[in-house]
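Q: Got a minute? One more chain.
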Amino acid sequence: MRAGADGLVHGVFDAPVDEELIGLLKRNRAFYMSTSIAAEPPVLGVAEWRRVVQDFDDAHRVPAAAYEVLESPALTQQIAALRAAGITWSVLNVARANLRAVHDAGIPIVIGTDSPVPGVLPGITTLLEMQRHVEAGLTPIEAIRAATIDAQRVLGRDTRSGTIEPGKDADLILLYADPLADIRNLRRLKAVVQAGIYVDVPSGR
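A: Always. Here it is, folded:
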């Protein structure tokens, strides 16, 4: 941040954010990406993390093979190594508190999961990360903006996508219920519009 970076990808996990960092983020008009979900697999352990993700995936959209990977010997060893390296509840709690502190200071928040991290499944964990943001104190609309227009803005793509406007890419989701009332309603998919093509979403098993 002192060198002028315009964003911090992967949140601060080791200590509370301080006034200097907050000031530098503001000075640089920088964004903050927490990726707090990346700490959950090693903190919870393989079995508990699998239960959390499967319970969250109540429409059964994640392929069964993805859950099998969660219990592969290689992944189990990777997660055990992260736990041994000190990824504990205290680390996760610091990450969540820092997200709230940065948000309260008015720093733009962007959603990210660091999906290559062992145990973080692409797709479903983005929605779980958004829910964690709301649990940390963001409103549902702030979490949605962090995953859409604000994310596109930091990538320099906000003139093409990120909001529903004439002339922008027609990639949308249609829902059965209002996510502003409950962020969990983002999982209640009715249809997807991708590149202008409408596709009904199966209700799930």
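A: The CA atoms of residues 94 and 132 lie 13 Å apart.
Q: Perfect, thanks.
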